[in-house]
## 1
Amino acid sequence: MDAVKLTIDGKEVTTTKGTTVIQAAAEAGITIPHYCYHPKLTIAGNCRMCLVEIEKMPKLQIACNTQASEGMAVETQSPKVLAARKAVMEFLLINHPLDCPICDQAGECWLQDYYMQHDLQASRFAEGKQHERKREVFGPHVVFDGERCIKCTRCVRFLQEVTRTDELTVVDRGDHSTIALFPGTVLDNPLSANINDICPVGALTDRDFRFRVRVWYLQKTPSICPGCSTGCNISVESYQNRIARFKPRINEEVNSHWICDEGRYCFYALTDVERITAPLIRQEGGLVPTDWKTALGAVISVLSGAQPVCGVLSGRNTNEEAFLFAKLLRRLSPQARLEVYYRERKLTEVEKILKSPDRSPNFRGARDMGVSDDGFEPLLSDLLDGKFRSAYFVGEDLLREVAQGEKVRQALKKLSFLVVQDTHLSETAKLAHVVLPAVNFAEKEGTYTNRKGRIQRLRPALVPPAGARQDLEIFSLLLARVGEPIRRATPGEIFLEIAREVPRYRGLTYESIGNLGVQIES
Amino acid sequence: MEKLLLRNIEAPNSHTLELYRSRGGYRALGKVVRELSPEQLIGEVKASGLRGRGGAGFPTGMKWGFVPKDSPKPKYVVCNADESEPGTFKDRLLIEKDPHAIIEGTIIAAYSIGSHTAFIYIRGELVYGANVLQRAIEEAYRAGYLGKNILGSGYDLDLILHRGAGAYICGEETGLLSSLEGGRGWPKVKPPFPATHGLFGCPTVVNNVETLAALPWIIDQGPAKYAALGTEKSKGTKLFSVSGHIRRPGVYEVEMGYPFRQFLEQDCGGVPNGRKLKGVIPGGASMPVLRADEIEGVRMDYESFQAAGTMLGSGGVIVMDDTTCMVKAAWNIARFFAHESCGQCSPCREGCHWMEKIFSRIENGQGRKEDPDLVLSISGNIQGNTICPFGDAAAWPAAAFIKKYRAEFEAHIAQQRCAVLASE
């Protein structure tokens, strides 16, 4: 590709031909303020915030639509540019409500940020402000405030260009122009909530998240969406040890800038459960709390050498957990049948943009760790046929997930011993002989390997309740009891062991995974 | 002076093919398609010195020359008949009285770039004009000037009349193209320019009605004869539509370089009722106003108007006598632009309404001392920073009225009422 050399604020920058000035500046670490420009959408050029001065051009040019060319000299901080920026900020704010204290965008609002950086003047606007529609529900996840809108059209372009569902458009003219649904339409596509993320101001907000937490209180943890095996990079944003929202994290190799609505809100089902905080053991009359020593002892004594046994791991368990689970079950019963939960469903064309057909984010990694013999469906049918005497289920409520619930219930009732390790007393756990209280995806550390073979890190965002234990710890305690003590049962140490023992993971280090993951050959 | 553009309009049935042909109509087209290559044609138009009559004054031949010859895409010519500039009604006269001149000019322009589909985009309100043009297009098809194998030359062209839905912004060439594509009449971000990425992303030339209507005469009489008219840089003749406080309003064809004062006082009969001239906008509402004392020595051509601090624009001359309240005039113009701003880019969307609201306050007795300077500041912040020239068109007149009649604004603010009515 042809290289182009230009200077931006006196700094020499080399980029490829066809790159715009705003991109070239970003590559060189210079941020040119903007609203309507979005790297994944077409150029609209309407906000005029990215105006820059270019040598030999009489007028200021918008950096988002100007291609870098050889010898070009760009100024992003000249007096003329600063004055234009200030002017654009003033124009955007004259009709904007001054109600930041009750606006949910406050704290992550580009108008606020840019006002502080580029404007900082008292209002010169002595007229009445233009009024627009407020609190208009666009769809299940999006609510619109016309007065806060700056008409950057990012939302309109997203729906035209990414989902191609075209629910929104611009209507009316001049300072009456506003965003509106096409008549008879609802903004309800599988990616709809992304427009809340790309809206730079408080015009589009998330109906689920808004007014729950002021954003500056949020604790942000880079992690991986547990919704499916695409492995979208997310930021788990929590407050007072509860998840407040998921936000997409940019990863061009996986999810670009987006996440799907199903993934975005999937944490409710996974975390809004009544936690169990002590092991339970079955006695006459039902499950009763017990101590860990008793519970773990029961698991070892019954499962040791028991035949035939099956182990089903959740698709939300990490590689490290899967590695120890396989080690444990093979040790307890060399003929044990192991599977990771995996079922597929049909996806629509829009869903296919991001979603995978499963709900098992780490099925691929679990299989790589040896938690797979013939696939989940054959194991399930053998279970229904009564071919197993005992079973060890981790983190998946089979009675709820599998359509033949009643048949599964009868099959599980016939088992002579069932261990369930989960966060809550699920329908399946109610049939268990021993229940081990574990943690959810947001409370643990480790790695997932997505459908395409990308290893990515899951990071703990929440503190688990006292009494529950990390899955990894439970497995290592059990392993210690069968004579295979794990010296340091931390995800990092176990990953190193995986890197020694699992062929495709050979030579990797935990640190090398970083925030964006590493690809293994598929 | 011999009339070129208005040569036919006073003849009875001037809109018919029969009359047009009886006066040498479509002779130029025959010459073009039979004798000239597109390159030769572009050369002739360049030699004539013809410049765009829509307002910007860009050399027509050069504009055609920007269209890539090797593009595999279809090419389009669009006749911009969306005449909407306040004070401008010259194209309307040509449309209603001499439609065949426009059609012949459009065919010639299309031939120059190898286009086989051309459009006339006519302002929605011009219903009568649209009917006249449609009938004329049908006549031209029947006579073999449009359609397949025009005049046996092997050149094909279809011409489609499209009526706008009534927005000033659709007169801006890329707003027009967006509208013609079936979208919102939003101007496009440039680059790319229409010459390479115009209608439906294909190379496109957009020419004004008056520009196209000048072409048959230029080809028929020869570019040298046209270039001999006017000044060194502004060649030929130009239509001016004169309105306001003037004894004989109407459309005038004037040789470029004609003295402006003489034009107003003699040709148009001057300001009636013994009143005095207070100001005149020479190029449609979007151009800066000239005070009476500023028109001395100004000539009617692109360069002379520019030297006087305004522009020739569309040639819409709006005359105001000394009964005119300049605050009200400024407000009226600002209100028009606030109403017509498309709302796409921030400075124009917000700034036009802001200026309108301030003018309204001043006129209605609620002006503040700082308002005139505030308008100048807003106007300066819009100028040059918008997607299309509309921003300038709204910002220039606002600033000009304040700069040139500042005392009147200050009097309104000081007296908290309309100062002109007070002096009556």
## 2
Amino acid sequence: MPETETEHPDHNAMRTGWGRALIFVYGVFVVAATGRSVVQIATDFGKAPLAYVLSALAAVLYIVATVCLLRGGRTAWRVASVSVVVEAVGVIGIGALSYAVTSLFPDKTIWSHFGQGYGYVPLVLPFFGIAWLRHTRAAV
Amino acid sequence: MNTVVSGVILAMCAITVVIALVHLVRDRPAEDGMYILLGILELVLLIQLVWGAIAFATTGRDVSGVLFFAYLVGVCVAAPIGAFWSLAERSRGGTAVLLVAVVTIAALQARLWSIWHGAHA
């Protein structure tokens, strides 16, 4: 991994090596979350408004993380850090809520039951994100 | 969905996953053979796309059209994007991209199967 100290920020640092695989996973979830929330909101918003709004929020967070990892640089690193932390809090919070207060979620979001419908990838993804951002911190 | 086609796709995914994992563990970049395997997989997926469209048009059963076609087409785009994205990274990271792409294909295929057999949402 390029961890050398440079005068100028390394815009490639976040999108090379393992970062490339991480971006691909985030990209998959951009499509999954966006597709899901668009279908949910467009077809029957009244059925589970809270769940559908949260689906859309998840989609936005995935888009922000993907774009920031692709762009690189200090600002993108900071924005990505905030978004993956919100993502981690979101998936744990919504995951717990979906078990505790089932009446709030008549339909599922991508984060329901800790991302069970997506092989629990939504649960581990933000932590891979945080680990990768820590790893690239010195380079950006 | 055709059981044989689905089985072939999932089996090819499994083989590619194993190969990619071995490469990952041995810290090798992705080899040409893996891209060829992915190409053959894509060919099978495209056959399924045509077959699926015909099957949807002729079936009398209640299958959610939007969902079915979203997954039917979606499962075809993962391999080309994954291959393109991994080619620029000739290291373990590129192998990991292929691995993720194939796992994604397997997941989409499984979902496609259940949508065809009547699952909604």
